[in-house]
Amino acid sequence: MNPLTRHFPLYGLRLTTPRLTLRLPDPAELAALADVAADGVHDAAIMPFNVPWSEAPPAERAFGVVRHHFEMLGRIGAERWAIPFAVFHGDGVVGMQDIGSREFAITRQVGSGSWLGQRFHGKGIGTEMRAAILHLAFDGFGAEVAVSAAHVDNPASLAVSRKLGYRENGTERVTPGGKPNVLQRLLIDREAWAENRAVDVTVEGLDDCRDLLGLPA
């Protein structure tokens, strides 16, 4: 057990699927995650993120991953939180999947974001890691709604959402990197999640995190 778990219980939160483990990384694992980002997370011809962090040079991408990880952890509290899970597959880390909310006790809504090392694309990992955090949201946290979004020219991300049962929830014009694009908003409620769930997920360490995240008992 990570010794920090006694003081920061999110280090004991773990999600397990048939192929993946999602949990907070230790320093060496966070360094490996930064290396994955430095190696590339998508084709250079597209920009899947509203903030084009992935266009930075490799060393800057790696630094940004580490900084963002600690920024997210530093903001966690009962009224606002985002958990930056590292995603482990086989012998190492392959990407990052986050889940977050504001005023969860009132809204019962979560949002999510993710990225996956480019060399791990096309293996169904993106679907499985999103399924894991949807299970955590609905079965673990007691969420009623989960939202996500993807640019309309990002068919892979949109396909993951459709496969898991999300429905379209309006669009928004955005300007990633100063270039026009359209963001497709997506939503899935508890009923749609229950009808479409197809991945077995085990959650460990959640009860110790409830006070920190302001979750119902």
Model regions low in confidence, pLDDT < 50 over at least 5 residues: none
Strand order of the largest sheet: 7-8-6-5-4-3-2-1-9
Largest sheet: 9 strands, mixed
Terminus-to-terminus distance: 24 Å
Q: How is the quaternary structure best described?
A: single chain
* CATH top level class name: Alpha Beta
| Count of DSSP-assigned helices | 7
Estimate the helix proportion, in percent: 25-40%
Using the alpha-carbon principal axes, give the shape.
globular
User: What is the N-to-C succession of helices and strands?
Assistant: EEHHEEHEHEHEEHEH
CATH architecture: 3-Layer(aba) Sandwich
Mean pLDDT over the residues: 92
Tell me how many strands there are: 9
Q: CATH superfamily, please?
A: Gcn5-related N-acetyltransferase (GNAT)
Pfam families: Acetyltransf_3 (PF13302)
InterPro entries: Acyl_CoA_acyltransferase (IPR016181), GNAT_dom (IPR000182), Ribosomal_N-acetyltransferase (IPR051908)
Keywords: Transferase
GO molecular function: protein N-terminal-serine acetyltransferase activity; protein-N-terminal-alanine acetyltransferase activity
Protein architecture, described:
The protein has one domain (3-213): Aminopeptidase. Helix content is 33%, strand content 29%. The chain contains seven helices and nine strands. A nine-stranded mixed sheet has the order 7-8-6-5-4-3-2-1-9, sandwiched between helices.
